[in-house]
Amino acid sequence: MKKILISGLISIAFLTIGKAADTHILKYGAVPDGSTLNTLAIQKAIDECHQSGGGKVIFPAGRFLSGTIVLKDNVTLYLEKEAVLLGSTELKDYTNMDPFTEGLGIDVGWALLVAIDARNIGIEGAGIIDGQGAAIKAKHILTDTRPEGQRWGLRPFLVRIVRCTGVKVTGVTLKYAGAWTSHYFQSKEIRIEGLKIESIGVAHNDGIGIDGCQNVRIKDCDIVSGDDALVFKTTSEKMACKDIVVSGLRLKSNQAGIKIGTESMAGFENIEISDCHIYDTRNGGIKLLTVDGAKVKNIRISDISMNNVRTPMLFRLGSRLSVFRKGESKQQTGIMDQVSIKNVKAVAADDAQLMPPSGILITGVPGHDITNLKLENIEITLAGGGTEKDTEVVVPEAVDQYPEVKTFGPKIPAYGLWARHVKGLKVINVKFILKAKDLRPAFVYDDVKELVNP
Predict the structure, then answer these.
(1) Contact 294, 262 (CB under 8 A)
(2) Which CATH number belongs to the domain containing residue 322 in this structure?
(3) Which GO terms describe its biological process (predicted)?
(4) Residue 340's domain spans which residues?
(5) pLDDT confidence tier of residue 448, bands split at 50, 70 and 90
(6) Domain assignment of residue 247, yes or no
(7) For residue range 219-239, what is the model confidence (pLDDT) as tens digits?
(8) 35: Cα within 13 Å, side-chain hemisphere
(9) How far apart are CA 176 and CA 197, in angstroms?
(10) Residue 251 within any structural domain of the chain
């Protein structure tokens, strides 16, 4: 009884402190007109809230223009209904507090909302964070004449959480980032729930990016993204993606719905994803890729529906072996082991990266097999259209190449499942439904050992 009473008093004390420290950004001179730059006013509100012990920094209805702002310990940004945190369209208003190089070799890291080495932080409410990505790009290209592939890295992410512990993001809408929409790096105890993302209009608009984070829960989010909708990365060798549970997501993307990799230095372990719907993706439904040395182990994906998805599944163990952060070293080829995909029903897009379309691609590299991969209760509907000549196609090894579906094209000699360099593959109740005749076989196995195919 004493323990319960003490616990209750502690909880009440924290609530009282939080309430006492809550503050509105209007008190610090923020102007909700969508054109006045409010960076200093918002930052002052955050700093004083932090210094007083923490609480909520409240954005009332209105449009608040800002450059980079930094969250501090025990502070939650709370956006009321019709409140909009609006990203500046001037690149000079942003700061890169944690530079790194992404998978295509571009230096990145600028962001609108950043937290570095913070504890107990949050972004909550019914409001919107809008990065104005297309407007930033339009202004940027007027003075930067380099090719888009070289200049895009200067554009800001929307949200960057770096080496933080205790992160809660709930209810808000994230829109139109200049680059990645949300990036969580080497952070722990992350809760993301009820989030809505609508981030399209410029390249590299990943939705939720989990990069070397642990103890993560993601639930009931709706994501429409220009790039990968939900992506797990490890751009550093120092911290694995580990102990992650995802459920109840709706995912639409111009790239992949669910992806592990491509940046894949540290491991990916104990990840469970279930009850998700993937639709209208242009470059894959589920893609598991380790190409930079990562150990991918104990991944469970189940109860997934897909509709109009180009190439429903790709599994790739390769040897690109890139490095993304200064001072870190190139690694040896990694592993992919103990992956289970279960209860999936998919309708593949008729127009795919590989024509005619194929359902599932699985490949290691010579000397490095994918091991103990289980596919169970999977049904995929495909367009068909393959010819007898297509069965003679030799698929490139592409050992050190960027791991995309098109890397193994332009055709695959199976319409259903093609597997190469695999040991311990279990294929249980996996079937493919054709809309039109296809003269390729449903299953092709090349250098597959210990196959279980009841």
Answers:
(1) no
(2) 2.160.20.10
(3) carbohydrate metabolic process
(4) 260-454
(5) very high
(6) no
(7) 999 999 999 999 999 999 999
(8) 1
(9) 9
(10) no
Q: Do residue 221 and residue 274 come from a single domain?
A: no
Is residue 33, in this structure, part of any structural domain at all?
Answer: yes
Of 227, 248, 281, the last residue of a domain is 227
Q: Cα Rg for the chain, rounded, in angstroms?
A: 23
**Euclidean distance between CA atoms 145 and 143, whole angstroms:** 6
**CB of 429 closer than 8 Å to CB of 378:** yes
Looking at the fold, whether 190 and 315 belong to one and the same domain comes out as no
pLDDT tens digits along 111-151 = 999 999 999 999 999 999 999 999 999 999 999 999 998 99
- Encoding tokens for residue 401? 């190449």
Tell me the three state secondary structure of residue 152.
helix
From the number of C-beta atoms within 10 Å of its C-beta (0-12, 13-18, 19+), residue 4 rates as: exposed
Contact of 355 with 313, CB cutoff 8 Å: no
Alpha helices of 400-450 — where are they, by DSSP H?
A: none
Q: Are residues 203 and 265 in the same domain?
A: no
Tell me which H or E stretch contains 46.
helix 39-51
Residue for token pair 């993560």 = 216
Would you say the C-alpha torsion 236, 237, 242, 246 has a positive or negative sign? positive
Residue 244 has pLDDT above 90, yes or no: yes
Where is the domain boundary, 227, 242, 274? 227
Number of domains in the chain: 2
Cα distance between residue 381 and residue 358, in whole Å: 10
Report yes or no: 139 and 155 within 8 Å, Cβ to Cβ: no
Q: Pull the structure tokens for residue 253.
A: 């993307």
Sequence-separated (6 or more) residues with CB below 8 Å from residue 126? 79, 80, 81, 171, 172
102, 108 contact by CB (below 8 A): yes
Question: What's this model's pTM, rounded to 2 decimal places?
Answer: 0.94
Co-location of 290 and 211 in the same domain: no
pLDDT band at 104, cuts 50/70/90?
confident
State whether 297 and 211 are in the same domain: no
Indicate the helix (H) or strand (E) that contains 9. Answer: helix 2-21
pLDDT at 13: 34
- Statement to judge: residues 266 and 323 lie in one domain: yes
Whether 172 is covered by a domain: the verdict is yes
Shared domain check, 271 and 223: no
Peptide bond into 413 cis (omega under 30): no
Closest CA to 227 of 202, 245, 248, 244: 202
Cα angle 67, 69, 72; round to 5:
180
Q: What's the gap between Cα 176 and its chain centre?
A: 15
Write down the residue that tokens 């196995």 correspond to: 445
What pLDDT shows up at residue 8?
37
The pLDDT score that the predictor gives to residue 71 is 98
